[in-house]
UniProtKB/TrEMBL annotation:
Protein name, UniProt field: Cupin 2 conserved barrel domain-containing protein
The species this protein was found in: Postia placenta MAD-698-R-SB12
Length: 84
């Protein structure tokens, strides 16, 4: 799987339902998200409050260890590969 070649050992596919929202949170290690379908919008409240960036199929989003982020899923849901 492509994400493993980036150095991630725990890799899995995840699907979120339409319009799902993840409150601000962080992870203990670096994570990557490779979007397969749908839309994934992220913001980093500690950096630029209010600035959201949307990603679609083929996009890769890396989140640093301990980085607080908030996520919204698009109206069609979103399927992505997560690497940890």
């Amino acid at each position: 799987m492509q994400v493993r070649s980036w150095g991630f050992t725990h890799v899995y596919v995840w699907t979120d339902s339409p319009n799902f929202h993840y409150n601000p949170h962080s992870h203990p290690g670096v994570t990557t998200h490779l979007i397969l379908s749908g839309e994934f919008t992220v913001t980093y409240p500690d950096d630029e409050p209010g600035r959201k960036e949307a990603f679609g199929p083929g996009a890769r989003i890396d989140v640093a260890a301990g980085k607080i982020h908030e996520v919204w899923i698009g109206k069609e849901g979103c399927t992505y590969v997560i690497g940890e």
